Amino acid sequence: MAEWNRDTPWRQGHLLGSDAIAALELVHATDPENTLVIVASHDCDLAQAPEGEPHVEVVVGRLVTDKEGNCTHAKNARKLHVEFAGVAACWAEFDATAKVPIDKFKLNEFDPRTDARLTPENHAVFQMWLASRYRRSAFPDEFERRLTSKGFKLHEKIAKAVKPHGELITGVFFDVDNGEEATRDGPDDTYTLDITILHAADPDFDAAEKAAIAAAKAIQTAFEDKLFKPTMTWQHIELSSCEATSESVLTYQQFKQLKRWRLDHISLAATPQQSVPAE
Asked: What does each of the 279 residues of the chain score in pLDDT, given as a tens digit?
């Protein structure tokens, strides 16, 4: 058995070959024929001696024929759709609950695939997705109750507005009450909400901008229909703005002030309600 050392060919984002998948008995739970396995451990952890860090974490995923718009760009913390480039270019789906530890010495018997790789940009997306499971934005419970209430279902309206535009939209960000913590009571005591629809700058800026503008208009209409038009005054949540912005324009200062709204955001669906760690 070859010695594991810092010169290992394995890196985060590498795919296991079919020989390694079979030998390690890694099978997708519902689609075994299309199993795809990716290395999740960071390069620095991979370089550590097995005596100190004996395992490599992988995610068991699968090939998919097409992407799901709301699962690209780490917009969904539970499920990722990401594209691999190369001779065997493909789209893959990974689920955050399908992480598996494998022995470094066993992995060392195999080489990573070279026919399908993540581009640097998609490798960054993969890293953001891995981190998003443990780094999510927290919003006031009452704000979330209003946004996700059965009478309004505005969280669903947001997801529906963004979904058709897939990779063109890279994120949905909220600014609630300018970042100030406030306790609201009753429909007339409204939260103030500013929404930023962040869109890609490359490879087609115009198409991405058009998509983000369309999504912003759909969201604006949904909020007005549910929270403004019935009484001709804002109730529950006042949508102060909903604007499309390019990721090439958003400043780091602005980014720090905003909180990402995950399109799989269901923190209030649990019983009892579960709090969400700050992003």
From this structure: 456 666 789 999 999 999 999 999 999 999 999 999 999 999 988 888 888 889 999 999 999 998 888 888 888 888 999 999 999 999 999 999 999 999 999 999 999 999 999 999 999 999 989 987 776 667 888 999 999 999 999 999 999 999 889 889 998 999 999 888 888 999 999 999 999 999 999 889 999 999 999 999 999 999 999 999 999 999 999 999 999 999 999 887 887 778 888 776 543 333 333 333 334
Structural domain contains residue 158: yes
Domain ranges, residue 107: 18-132
Mark whether 150 and 192 lie in a shared domain.
Answer: yes
Q: Choose the final residue of a domain: 132, 165, 184.
A: 132
- Residue with tokens 């974490």, as numbered in its chain: 57
Total domains in the chain come to 2
Q: Which amino acid is at 8?
A: T
Domain assignment present for 118:
yes
**Among the listed residues 171, 173, 152, the one whose alpha carbon sits nearest the alpha carbon of residue 224:** 152
The answer to whether the pTM exceeds 0.85 is: no
Q: State the Cα torsion 229-234-239-240 to the nearest 10°.
A: 120
